[in-house]
Amino acid sequence: MKKSFGKLSNVLLITAVTALVATACGNSDNNSSNASPSNTASSSSSASTTPEPSQDSGKKETLVYYGFSEWTADPAYAPVFEELKAKFESDNPGYTVDFQSDPWGTWETKYKVMFASGNAPDVFIVNNPDFPTFANSGYLLDLGSKMDAAAFGDYFPGILSMYKWNGKNMALPYTTDARVLWYNKDLFTKAGLDPNSPPKTWAELKADALQIEEKTDAAGYGMDLGLKEFPAQSLFTASDSNIISVDAAGAITPTVNTEAFKGYLQTLADMKPAYESDYATLDHLKVGTLFAQQKVAMVIAGTWVTDQNPDIKGAAWIGQSLVPKMNESAPDGSFGGGFGIGVSANSKHPEQAIKLAQLLTSVDFNARTMSDVPANNASLAVSKFATDPAYKIFMDQIKFARQSQPKTLFYKEIDAAVYDTVTKVIVGGQKVDEAVADLEGKIKEIAAAK
């Protein structure tokens, strides 16, 4: 899925959305042609009683790290990975690191095949949408049982929760993203609105969008229903609610018959006159471009707006603010995606593999080994996002990023069910109460499939 901020931002958010949009879980392709020829070293992924290397013998044990080439092999980041390698090998005599990678389209499939075929790397990037399958399949080492609780203290809570399985920390957050409200100050002025006072609540968002639609030639709000994922999820996360709850036994209960979810649906339905005419087929990138063309007054989006349309970066007419909340007393929120760093449950050298994972997410290396937003406070503070004024609002928003449901094996199916519900309400005109009742039944049906 998805899915951020930088060279790989569009790829991440298209697949993650921040997004972030998502790859299919599972391992349906075990064709040997997909096996990485460079992974002979990753025999370290199978359980073994191999003795620890002797520092005197000169022999080194190899830890395999697997990521995608857009970072690991990119000239902008490869020297930093070599620096990290030198640091790790200095701190861990007798061990060396082999950085392996493939381009995104290949990596996305190959790393699933590597695990399914018993050829797993020791340390690897885990895609957020794939996390439930990896955790449930026993591929991931329980880091919480091996690391002090303080090691997880600096990560943003909503992002850390994305890598919990049955209450256990099964991966370290590596990157993240968030969406903010982008608005057109000139169109606000033309509509008789204060250009320095963007909407802060759902009610204000609706009122402003409808007023802009009435008073100008632009659409008031950009809806990306064509993305075929949970529409305007950032809007819903700026409430005190979730789509489901999961108990200690893993039982899933729908939690959509709430003021928050009903209010979210009603807000989207009420804003329909303010949408661009092709809203049902537009995805997030197309809506971002319409905003750049000043045809849409407001969008909730990530940095792809200016990444895709660099000519508008720094334009005086662009305003940014936090995602409007359900009401003044509701918590702030935004959708967050990204990637984690996982350790194979079958690594022959789990202690050293954990150290490598920690080094990758440390303040010294996290922000310098990838182009997205670091997922912890310390690394974010030394990243480019902390000094570039264009990202100030993202710095404020990122700490509130989360997802609208706990991680389960049915994440994608439930997300799709929410999309269908929103479509029926907005496009089909279904009544909110009826739509919520249908969604409750659908979620129960999905959960019963286990």
TrEMBL record:
Residues 28-59 are annotated as: Disordered. Keywords: Signal, Transport. The keyword Signal applies. Residues 28-54 have a biased composition (Low complexity). Gene3D superfamilies: Periplasmic binding protein-like II. The keyword Transport applies. Residues 1-24 form the signal peptide. InterPro entries: SBP. It comes from the Bacteria. Belongs to the bacterial solute-binding protein 1 family. PANTHER family: MALTOSE-BINDING PERIPLASMIC PROTEIN (PTHR30061), MALTOSE_MALTODEXTRIN-BINDING PERIPLASMIC PROTEIN (PTHR30061:SF50). This is ABC transporter substrate-binding protein. It comes from Cohnella yongneupensis.
